Amino acid sequence: MKVAIIGASGKAGRVILEELAERGHALTAIVRDAARTQHDTVLKRNAFALTTEELTDFDVVINAFGASPGNEHQHVDLGRHLIDQLRGTPTRLIIVGGAGSLYVDEEQTLRLADTPDFPSAYLPTAKNQAKNLEDLRQTVDLHWTFISPAAFFDPEGPRTGKYQLAKDVLTVNAAGESYISYADYAVALADEVEHHRHDKERISVVSV
């Protein structure tokens, strides 16, 4: 498939690009600075300026954008821009979300970001990614999937090729840990790209 990755030079974006490249998909890295990626096909563009015409050239657009400190509102701003450009089209939007918007109870009354021990430094990102998810859920004419990692999203962890999926409640693995490596998260995301099993849904990923 033809897949574009916004933020392909970021930590998660690079790993997702590598996983999809291994699977033989036609990939385009959408980045502001082409020097930050070694991928062959690059679209040098400010993500906020991407047009419907540009985006609908792809089967799937992956939003792996990471906002800098103090600019966390851009998760909402970019999310709304992509919704506006892609609604009513067949192009699918997959969002690399966060764990902060996951609930910690089965009754879904308390989100992880609202618990006392949630790191304050990550709270603005968590709140804005949660708002992005809310905007997506209020959009009816868009094919989207929001994928949250486990609470410990490990950039150094191994690729085991195994994972388990959950929905809106924070889930733990057999060791009682909410953990996923970037590499195994990328496996789960690539599987969703290929199989499209969770249209208009948020899913979460944890190791086995």
From TrEMBL:
Q: Which InterPro entries match?
A: NAD(P)-bd_dom, NAD(P)-bd_dom_sf, Polyketide_Oxido-like
Q: Name one GO molecular function term.
A: oxidoreductase activity, acting on the CH-NH group of donors, NAD or NADP as acceptor
Domain NAD(P)-binding: start-end pairs:
7-191
Coiled-coil portions: none
**Xref: Pfam families:** NAD_binding_10 (PF13460)
The record's listing under CDD domains reads:
BVR-B_like_SDR_a (cd05244)
How is this protein named in the record? Answer: NAD(P)-binding domain-containing protein
